[in-house]
Structures are given as structure tokens and as C-alpha cells.
Design a protein that fits this description.
By secondary structure, this protein is mostly helical. It has 6 helices and no strands. Pfam families: CMD.
Length: about 120
């Protein structure tokens, strides 16, 4: 198992104050990841989709950062947000795209302009 990325400040405090809980939490995550045949990049996209569905801006940011570190293409992350449109609705998908762009940079497509 590779070293996890640094935690955000609040989570780092909880991990420091409750190390046994955090070790158990990390072990659960590792066990879930190892429980089936889904490869790591696909797991990351699934986790990104779950964060989008939960409306978790911090989770989307975290999974995007980790996805980039793991070599996931930015366009794949954008597609996950677009796939949310029929299930979660256009507003949730647009919010997710903005959260993804917070991490990966400017959108590939420029906004439509009206004349």
C-alpha cells in the first residue's frame, strides 16, 4: 500500500488525536479497495462519482487531487461529472464540474457567449 496523501488540517487533527480510530479507518479503506477486481484508476473515478452524488465539495477536491497523482486524465474526471446529469440533475453536475476545475484547472471548453 502506498503512503496516503497529507490530510486536510481538520482531518489531520482528528487522526493525531485519535490515531487508533484513524488507523482502523485507513485499514477499512484499504480492505474495501482490495475486495474486488476493479483497478485503481477506476476505483478513483467511482469514489469521485460518490463524492459528487453526496454533494461533497471537499470529497470531490480530494478525489480529483488523488486521481491526478494516480494518472487519471482530467477529461475522465469531467466525464464523471457529466454522467451525473441524468441521475443527479444539471445543477449538481455543474457544481461538480466547478469543483473539479478548482483542482485540475481551467475548463477545456470556453463558456458559450451570446451576441
Amino acid at each position: 500500500m502506498q503512503n496516503p496523501p497529507p490530510l486536510p488540517a481538520a482531518a489531520a487533527r482528528v487522526a493525531q488525536d485519535y490515531p487508533e480510530l484513524y488507523r482502523a479507518y485507513a485499514a477499512l479503506g484499504a480492505a474495501c479497495a482490495a475486495s474486488g477486481p476493479i483497478e485503481a484508476k477506476t476505483q478513483r473515478l467511482v469514489k469521485l462519482a460518490l463524492a459528487i452524488g453526496a454533494g461533497s465539495e471537499g470529497g470531490v477536491h480530494s478525489h480529483c487531487r488523488r486521481a491526478l497523482e494516480e494518472g487519471v486524465a482530467p477529461e475522465a474526471m469531467r466525464q464523471v461529472a457529466l454522467l451525473a446529469i441524468p441521475t443527479l440533475g444539471f445543477p449538481r453536475a455543474v457544481a461538480a464540474l466547478t469543483w473539479i476545475e478548482d483542482v485540475i484547472g481551467k475548463p477545456r471548453h470556453s463558456p458559450l457567449t451570446t451576441t
